[in-house]
Every structure is written in C-alpha cells, then in structure tokens.
Amino acid sequence: MLEVNNLNIDYIFENKPINLIKDFGFTLHKGEVIGVVGESGSGKTLSSMALLKLISPKLKYRSGNAYFHNDSDEKIDLLKLNDRELEKYRGKDFGVIFQEPMTSLNPAFICGSQITERITRHLKYNKKEAKDYTLSLLEDVKIQNPSKVFNSYPHQISGGQQQRIMIAMAISCNPKILIADEPTTALDVTVQRSIIELIQTIISKNNLSVIFISHDLSIISELVSDVIVMYKGAIVEKNSINKIFYYPQNPYTKALIACRPNNNNQNEYLNTIDDFFYTDKEGNIIQKEITKKTAFIQKHNVSDKPLIDIKNLNVSYKINSSFFSKEKKYFQVLNNLNFSIFKGETLGIVGESGCGKSTLAKTIVKLVMPTSGSIHFDDKNITDLSNREFRQYRSKIQIIFQDPYSSLNPYLKIGTALKEVIDVYTDERSNIKKKNKVIEMLETVGLKEMHYDRYSHEFSGGQRQRICIARALLLNPEFLILDESVSALDVSVQAQVLNLLNNLKQDFNLTYAFISHDMSVIKYMSDRVIVMNKGIIEEIGNVKQVYENPIAEYTKMLINAANFKIKEH
After folding, report:
1. From the CB of residue 198, how many other CB atoms can be counted at a distance below 10 Å?
2. Is the per-residue pLDDT at 89 higher than 70?
3. Where are the domains of the chain?
4. How many alpha carbons fall within 13 Å on the CB side of residue 499?
5. Could you give the C-alpha distances from 472 to 375, 397, 438, 536, 561, in angstroms and in order?
C-alpha cells in the first residue's frame, strides 16, 4: 500500500543543510495500523507529513522515495509529483487528522461547508448530495444533533466535537490511508477514549491503513500492530506493540516506557531519560548501566490540622440575556463544595474540562470571587478580604498555571521577571541580594546562573515550567496550587518536573493542590483525591481507596476510560 525508503529532510540555515529526518522508512500494508511515537521534536509529525509534501518550503528533500500502490497496483512515487499532481491524492487517497482542530478548521466557515467542499471537489457530488452525505458522516462519527453542528462555526462546538469534524473530513472521500497526527492530545480521558473507539470502528469498517502519530505509547496500545520509535529525527526502534512494551531494545524506548507513573511506583522517584542513556558527539545513543537501586520519596507526616478549609462554596456566572428580558439567569460553576486540605498533604483534584477544577483554584487565590460560602486559610477567613487585606496572604498561597509560556512576560529577561516578585512583596532593596536570591532559586529548580539573563522564548517547555515554580517559591509559600502544570509536557520532561515537585515539597514543607485530567499523574502525586463533575464533588477519599474501590459511577467511568490495554495479536 505504502513503501517509504531512505527519506532524508534538511533544514537550510545560512546556506548549510541541517539533517532533520535521517533515513526514515517503513512499509504499510492494506488494513494495517502502525504507530509513530516520540517526544516533541523527534520528527514524527514532520516525517509523516513529508509524504504528502505538507511541510515548510524552508525544508528540502535530500533523498528518499514514498511509493503508493494505487487501485491499478501502479507504483507512484509521491515525492516525485508536483503540487498539482499530488492534489488528487491528498484528501481522496490520503486522509489527515491534524493535531489541533481549532487551528486546522477555518473559523470563517461553518463546519458542514468545510466537509462538503472536499466532497464536491473529489467525488463530484452536487450541493444537495454533498450535504446529505456530510450529515450521514456526522452521524457516523457520533456527533449529536448533526444538523445543528453542520451549521455551527468551529468556535461554537467543543474540542471533542471539533476533532470529530476533522475525522469526518478525513474519511469523507473514502481514503485508503489515514494519517492521524496526535488526534487525542489535550482531550479529557473520556473524550480520548471515545475518539480512539471511533477510529477503531472506522478502521474496521473501511479496512483502512493508518499511520497513528503520538507522544504517548499507552494511547496507541489498543490500536496499532507495529510501532516506530523516533528520537531526534531517526528511527531508533521498530517492532510489534507487544515487543515494544514488554521487550524494548533501545535505551530511549525503555526510557519512554519507564518515565510514566504506573500502579507500582507511587512512592518512588520516576525514571528519567538521563537514567538510561546519553548521546555522544556524533549523536549516537549510548546506554548507561542501569542499577536496580530504587530511590524512594521521603514523605513527611500529614497534619490533622487543615491548612485550607472550604465550606458551602458556590460560584456562579451571570448569563447574558436579551436586552428586553428582566429575568437574570446564572450558570452554577461550583455547587456547595465542602472539603479541607491538611498541612503537608497533596490533594489531587481530577475531572473533565468544564467540571470547575480551575475555577476552584482561582477562587482560592481570589482571582474569582465566590457567590457564597467561605474559604479559611490557617483558621483565618480570607473570603471577604479586600485585595489590600489579602496581600499578606498572596505570598503564602501561590498558583502555577498550565501554560508557562503565557505566564511569563516575553519582553522581560527571566532574572528581571523573578526579581519583580521580590520588589513587590518584600522590603529588600539591595539589587545584589535580590539577584543572588533569584539565582539561588533557579539553581534549586535545576536551572543555572547563566539562565538569569535569557528571555522566556529561549527555554524549552520544561525549563519554562521550572521558572514558574521558582517564581512561586521565591516568597516561601505554604500552599501551592498546580493547575494542569505538567499536562503540556513530554513524558520524560513530565517525570523530571514531578520528581522536582516531590523534592521541593519536602525541602520547603509545602502543601499541594494538584489539578489534572491525567488519572495516572493524579494517582502518583496525591495522598487524597477529589473527583469533580459539573461543579460538584462526586467522590473524595484516600487516593488508593478511590482508585481501587471507587463508589461513584462517574469515578468508575473516568478510571475505565484511562485504562488502555495493549492490542493482542
């Protein structure tokens, strides 16, 4: 069906080629599903999109072939075709599900017209036939109320629905090969599960061949038969999914699997890539001798005294009604929440998007005002304090947001941005002392003195999150809220940050509220867990008890949705 050989792609920088994709190749048979996995920058998306020449003009093909076998069993090298010749294969023989549907869908057109456009072009249907076919496609991809969604703009539907629109578009012309580029990234576990099941159904129904790109091996485990593991533009391992999971050969593959939190390592530090290998000057992976010694997390005792005590907390937003309506309408975001967070513990807060967990975090730090109820910090009612009165508590209660890039000022050097915190909340006037304190904190979170004078865009995602952690710790807080603070990171970087957070908790005697939609991360980090759904608490209890013997049906659904099993062959 598809045969790729010796694909090399260069980036031309100052008239010099930099080899980004190195000798990439594979064979895809009819009805076969292969996975391409690796971290950000590994080349998995670039190598797959290059097959259809969907890459930047700054990139150049050095060598390679991509042979597609059409219905007449002709062998067509896609890389030898010009854009006009390739156009008839894109969309018709090849369908693509892009990673970010909101940026892939045109915001100026309704969803239905974006699908019918492709159908009329490739299948030569008239407008009525194209619309009827599109509505049937929307039903096939399990969209409720297809007629309404057909006439909706992308911003008017949820992320899960947007991804279903992309899937409907990708399969609309009955392609022979489907390229799915991270189709479940940034989706809740239940939506992830439904998208995976939908793709499984489409594969079996249409006998599709699929290239499934992901950074997470567990996500693709139920779908694929074979896996390609990529690192820095090269294939480091290629094997069946069973052998990759149970008998990995390459140190990088071993590291990818070991970095994830699992059911057996809750009290242990997570493995990181540095534990498994290093790269020499030529870029070769050199395996380290792996010792069996396990490093355990030294956990302090949790106090029986609450640090945060929340009673009857309600938050509601006013809904804009028509100009002539006298009735005021409100949307209840948090509904009568009651719980405590004890000194020294990590309380996990888990739930799907829209359940209210981030609103809860913002309410605790007074970025959102409650409609009713109370929040006590160390026995002091902070609910109705003015901003001036609450100022003394801001240094004790800090929050780290999901996206570190938007949390940092791009126009300030990191040292200046962190020094601002000391300027605002302390009486320290010595610039030398302030600089030394910032450098000391940067080193505490694993950065170096040389990073002091760099801008935020010069750092990786993991480094930026470390900077945000350093900024939060500069004021010696007692309570730290981590709002999806590792969700955008690769698994190896995520492991480093989680290990850092466990260390800092002990070193600074911190109490955490850890918010996430990732069930495995919540289980690894938490002592107790709250399960939220539509603004209410479905369940609260010891993390082991909740995961092993959940009471609420919603909790059971979340746990089942997160449990992916390896495809048997």
Report:
1. 18
2. yes
3. 307-396+478-562, 403-474
4. 19
5. 21, 9, 11, 29, 34
Q: What angle do CA 188, 524, 528 make, to 5 degrees?
A: 90
Cα atoms in the Cβ-side hemisphere of radius 13 Å centred on 561? 22
Strand partners, 212: 35, 180
- The pLDDT assigned to 320 comes to 65
- Confirm if 408 and 456 have CB atoms less than 8 A apart: yes
∠ CA 181-187-190, rounded to 5°: 120
Whole-angstrom distance, CA of residue 44 vs CA of residue 216: 12
Query: Cα(244)–Cα(566) distance, rounded to whole angstroms?
Result: 11
Q: Are 28 and 1 in contact (CB under 8 A)?
A: yes
Tokens of 560: 């089942």
Q: Distance of CA 79 to CAs 29, 49, 97, 300, Å?
A: 19, 11, 21, 60
Hey, what are 556's tokens? 């059971």
Residues in the chain: 569
Q: What is the mean pLDDT of residues 394-407?
A: 87
Please choose, from the candidates 364, 351, 381, the residue with its C-alpha nearest in 3D space to the C-alpha of residue 315: 364
Q: List Cβ neighbours of 257 (8 Å cut-off, separation of 6 or more).
A: 217, 245, 248
Packing angle between helix 414-425 and helix 431-444, nearest 10 degrees?
A: 120
CA distance 550 to 559: 9
CB 47 within 8 A of CB 32: no
Sheet holding 75-77, edge to edge: 75-77, 59-69, 2-13, 16-28, 234-240, 226-231, 33-37, 209-214, 177-181, 94-97
306 forms beta bridges with: 342
For 293, the token pair is 């010694």
Contact by Cβ (8 Å): 153, 111: yes
Note whether 163 and 188 are within 8 A (CB): no
The DSSP letter of residue 299 is P
pLDDT reading at 293 higher than 80: no
User: Domain 307-396+478-562 falls in which CATH fold?
Assistant: Rossmann fold (3.40.50)
Residue 346 · residue 523 · CB < 8 Å: no
- CB burial class (10 A; 0-12, 13-18, 19+) of residue 124? exposed
Residue 291: what pLDDT?
57
Mean pLDDT of the chain: 88
Taking the mean position of all CA atoms in its chain, how far away is CA 309? 31
Average pLDDT over residues 471-475: 92
Distance CA(68)–CA(413), nearest Å, equals 50
